[in-house]
Amino acid sequence: MKDLTNGSIVRHILAMAPPIMAGMISIMICQLVDLYFVSGLGDAAVAGVAAAGNAGFLVNGLMQVLGVGTVALMAHAVGRKDRADANLIFNQAVALSVLFGLLTLVAGAVLSRFYMRSIAADQATIEAGTAYLLWFMPALALEFVMQVIASALRATGIVRPAMLVRVLAVVINIALAPVLISGWGTGYALGVAGAGLASSIAVAIGALMLLAYFRKVERYVAFNPAQWRPQPHHLKRILNVGLPAGGEFAMMFIFMAVVYYVLSDFGAATQAGFGIGQRVLGLIHMPALAVALAAGPIAGQNVGAADAARVRETFVKAALIVTTVMTGFMILAQVRPQLLLAGFSNDRETMEIAYLFLRIISLNMIAQGLIFTCSSMFQALGNTKPVLLSSATRVFTYSLPAIWLSTRPGFRMEYVWYLSVAATTLQAGLSLWLLRREFRKRLTPVRPAETAAQAEADAVAPPARAPA
Question: CA 182 to CA 193: how far, in whole Å?
Answer without folding.
Answer: 11
